[in-house]
From TrEMBL:
Keywords: Mitochondrion, Ribonucleoprotein, Ribosomal protein, Transit peptide
Primary role: Component of the mitochondrial large ribosomal subunit (mt-LSU). Within the mitochondrial ribosomes, required to direct the nascent polypeptide toward the tunnel exit and position the exit at a distance from the membrane surface.
Family: Belongs to the mitochondrion-specific ribosomal protein mL45 family.
Transmembrane segments: none
Endpoints of the signal sequence: none
Protein's recorded name: Large ribosomal subunit protein mL45
Subcellular location: Mitochondrion
Length: 221
């Protein structure tokens, strides 16, 4: 009799166990659709798309990648059209020799090309003169190197082109430069002028090569 009571008591306890009353739940992971933009919510506090995207990015929501537009600078060229190569012997070879006659012929061709380029430049710059340009170029050369030693980048930007500036300041961050212009051994002169069009016929670029023979003192630490 005692054994039957213990069995009934055990069966009653098992029936009243709370774990038997819980309905088993099967959890199955479901892959949701990926969202690449923040959904628009009703009554959002941020009206503009920029504010909504900024708050969504801070909350960890993936936003579409923005295409960054880069400005193209057309104020200067990336290279030299026709590099100037000084003639051997500074064009002092005798015209009676074969090499001298060839050098003279090539020099005449270069001079004719320069005259045509000067004519095209004067169509847009009426006051252009090879004599005054050479003198102004030497003044800009001296001023640019003086500002380079003092590292006045604002004034240096106003004197040189966007291509020349990084080439002048590259590697000078932890260096001290000393430079001075002593004298000019001969007056500066224009030796070559080139003018070509890019993108369109109205967009012309001119390059003027100035020869300067001077004495300078430079040092860097």
């Amino acid at each position: 009799m005692a054994a039957s009571r213990s069995v009934c008591r055990t069966g009653l306890i098992s029936l009243l166990n709370p774990s038997r009353l819980i309905i088993p739940i099967l959890l199955q992971p479901v892959r949701t659709k990926k969202r690449f933009s923040a959904p628009k919510s009703v009554g959002a506090r941020y009206n503009t798309n920029a504010e909504t995207a900024r708050k969504a990015k801070a909350a960890g929501i993936i936003v579409p990648e923005e295409l960054m537009e880069r400005q193209i600078n057309v104020s200067c060229t990336a290279g030299i059209f026709d590099p100037y190569i000084p003639p051997e012997g500074d064009a002092r070879l005798s015209t009676l020799s074969k090499d001298g006659l060839k050098q003279r012929t090539q020099q005449l061709k270069q001079t004719a090309t320069s005259h045509l380029a000067i004519r095209r430049v004067k169509n847009y710059e009426e006051g252009f003169s090879t004599k005054t340009f050479a003198e102004n170029a030497q003044e800009i050369f001296i001023a640019a190197h003086n500002h380079l030693t003092q590292f006045d980048r604002h004034k240096l930007h106003s004197l040189v082109t966007e291509r020349c500036y990084p080439e002048m300041v590259r590697g000078n961050r932890y260096r001290t430069i000393h430079w001075s212009f002593v004298e000019s051994l001969e007056p500066p002169r224009v030796v070559q002028v080139r003018c070509t069009e890019m993108v369109s016929k109205d967009n012309l670029y001119g390059q003027v090569t100035v020869r300067m023979h001077s004495k300078q003192v430079s040092d860097s630490v």
